[in-house]
Structure formats: C-alpha cells, structure tokens
Specification:
The protein has helices at residues 5-20, 29-40, 101-117, 138-144, 146-149, 205-216, 261-281, 301-314, 365-381, and strands at 46-51, 55-61, 64-74, 122-130, 155-162, 170-171, 175-178, 180-189, 193-194, 229-238, 245-246, 249-258, 285-294, 297-299, 318-319, 339-346. It has 382 residues and is α/β, with parallel strands linked by helices. The protein has an 8-stranded mixed sheet, with helices on both faces. It has a 4-stranded antiparallel sheet with strand order 10-12-8-13, with helices on one face.
Length: 382
C-alpha cells in the first residue's frame, strides 16, 4: 500500500499547480477541471461532475457487494493575498490556498491512483472533491444535488492538516471535533442629521459602542466545555465618510461559535436579545441576517475507531491533541446520513496557522495522508 517515488513527485507537482491557480468558494471551475484531468487516466468506474456546483466524485467499484465508503476533500481557496517566495506561489491576486485544500486534493488523487491499481474487493469507494467548504455552503449543496442521491455513502471520512501538531502525527477523538459557527449581520437604522444638529436625528453611535462589548460578553468557557461560546466582532461601520452628516445607520458583523448545534441555538437567542434591547433603548430599528452557517462536526464512534485502527497499524502517533477544534468544517453535514469521522494530521509545530498569508501545505504530508486513507478503505472493503 505504497505510492511510488514517481507518484509522489507527480502528486507534489499537482499540488503546486493547484496552488498556483486558486479559486474561491463557488468559483472552482478550473480547479475541478485540473482534478478531472488528473483522474481521467485512472479509469474510475463512474464520474459525477458539477456536484453542488463545481464538485466532482470518482467511484471505484469492488467485485462483490458491500458498503459504500466516501473520502472527501475540498476544492476552494481563500480570498487572502499570499506572502511567499515559493516558485509555485499563487498567481491570482488576493486569492491563495492558505488552508491546505490543495494538499487535501493531492492526497485524494493519490488514493485514486492506489485504487486504480487495486480495486476494492467489495463495496464501492467514492472520492468526493467538494466545492465551497469555506463558506459552509458546499456540503449542503452536494447533499441536495440529485446526482449525489445515487452515491449514498454508508461511511464518510475526511482529514484536515493541523499546524501546531508535529508533522505526520494525528489528532483524533469521537464526538464533537469542530465547532458550530455562523456569521451574524446586524443592521441598526435611525435617522441621519446635519452634523451641526445631531439632536434632530437618531444616531446609532452610542448603540454600537454599547453593542460590541455586550456581544463579546456572551463568550464563556473553554472549547472542551459543553457550554463553550465565543463571539468575535469582525466588522463595524457607521454612517457615510463625511464631516457634515451625523450617521443614521450602522452595521456590525459578529461570528458566533459554540461546541454544538444546541449551544448555537441558545447563543443566537442571547445575541438577538441584546441587539433588540439596545436598539429599543436608543430608539433604533434592528434587523439581522445569518451567513456562513456551519453545523458542528461530530465524529461517529465506529468511524473514529476505523481511523484509530489504521493509525495504529501504520505506527502513526495519535492522541486527541487540541480537539475539539475551534474552527468550523461543513463535513459534519455528511454525518447526518453516514457514519462519519474527520482526522487531523499534524502539518508541523513551526508551521504558520491556517488562513495566515505565510501558510503553505507541507508536501511531505501527501504520502502519509494517502496511506491512512487507503488503510481505512482496505480494512473496510479489502
């Protein structure tokens, strides 16, 4: 169950090509085309394209009946400018693979190479290259796509690289591993006025200066605590950029984060209660919308056990590390219909954090990820 040196070199080159040409969520058309070109020569038994947008899935069938096992990675990059002198650095302004999705795609393509040479003995393996993970929309869109209904996995597996953990070591646990989160967009509306007569209008200035710390005060606990909550104010704007107008409207963005979906419902209620009360106190109208909604990601005990067995058979050191993880991942939606688990592979203790302009996926992690995924597949399907 090993890639050849030639495989590793070609998968590394694929990762670098994907890194040079990143595309943000919902716009991954060329990324999908590059992945499709890498898969076509591997003779999958079925290929489903344009899944939930630009997603694609390659299927490798076994000789006998058995379960359907899905391995999933992500296609999208981030709207952040990269800071790098690497020869393969991003050529797209203000866009880069700073979460490692390019490496995850290379790992899944490596698994496809192994399966093309030795089909599973039974069942079916689905390799899903999912769009729009970063916005939380991609998994939902794939699940809602009629083309995905025919794939219907019994098990679903994914991995994410994790800076701060030793290269090639793993973090794994059952239960919640990624937090629920959503963006809260708050709009406060009053009445603008001449700057010389602010008393004739209804300014949101005092309201937003009170609202931002009030939202922050809803944060509590540590990530492992069942009632963990974190509110991060990410943006605030008031009025027009002019000296002659007292403002009549304001916008506040906040990211809400909890360990579980149940906790998120309670945090949303608390946040909206404070928004409403402060707006009323200042004679303002309040409106809100939610964006980038992520459900928490929960590792099924059976699927987690399969990852653990693979790690132990391969001699890969593992513990629960920093889990649960504060960031969110929409892979959790696949756990609604399949026994699902996500593994976290260390990308180095000296690696910049994810979404940092200096981050770059370590190529040495590609063959490790392929070995883990293939061991899970062989243990399940032969």
């Amino acid at each position: 169950m090993e890639l050849t040196n030639s495989d590793i070199a070609e998968l590394t080159d694929l990762r670098h090509r994907l890194h040079r040409h990143p595309e943000i969520s919902g716009q991954e058309r060329q990324t999908a085309q590059r992945v499709r070109a890498a898969l076509d020569g591997l003779r999958p038994d079925q290929m489903a394209c344009e899944l939930g947008g630009h997603g694609l899935a390659a299927c490798f069938d076994g000789r006998e009946a058995g379960p359907t096992v899905m391995f999933r990675c992500e296609l999208d990059a981030l709207p952040i400018a990269q800071i790098s002198d690497a020869p393969y650095c991003s050529k797209v302004p203000e866009t880069a693979h700073l979460c490692g999705h390019d490496g995850h795609m290379a790992i899944l393509t490596g698994l496809a190479r192994r399966l093309s040479r030795q089909r599973p003995a039974r069942g079916r393996v689905i390799l899903l290259f999912q769009p729009a993970e970063e916005t939380g929309a991609g998994a939902n869109a794939v699940l809602a796509d009629p083309k995905f209904a025919g794939l219907a996995p019994d098990y679903a597996f994914a991995l994410h690289n994790l800076p701060g953990v030793a290269l090639g070591a793993a973090a794994l646990k059952p239960g919640p591993v990624c937090c629920a989160s959503r963006g809260l967009d708050i709009r406060l509306t009053g009445t603008p006025a001449h700057a010389s007569q602010p008393e004739t209008g209804r300014s949101p200035m005092s309201a937003i200066s009170q609202l931002m710390p009030a939202l922050d005060a809803l944060s509590r606990g540590r990530t492992r605590d069942p009632d963990f909550a974190l509110v991060t104010v990410t943006h605030a704007n008031m009025g027009a950029p002019a000296f002659g107008i007292a403002p009549g409207a304001a916008t506040v963005f906040a990211t809400l984060r909890t360990l579980t979906d149940d906790g998120m419902a309670a945090l949303c209620d608390a946040a909206l209660s404070r928004v409403g009360q402060i707006a009323r106190d200042h004679g303002l109208e309040a409106a809100h919308q939610y964006h980038d909604v992520f459900h928490h990601c929960d590792n099924h005990p059976e699927a987690t056990g399969m990852f653990r067995a693979a790690l132990e058979e391969l001699g890969i050191r593992h513990d629960d590390g920093p889990l649960p993880w504060r960031p969110s991942e929409d892979f959790g939606r696949f756990g609604d219909t399949a026994r699902a688990a996500m593994l976290f592979l260390g990308s180095g203790t000296d690696q910049p954090p994810l979404h940092n302009p200096h981050y770059d996926f370590p190529d040495d992690l590609i063959p490790i990820g392929v070995r883990v995924f293939e061991r899970v597949a062989r243990n399940l399907l032969g």
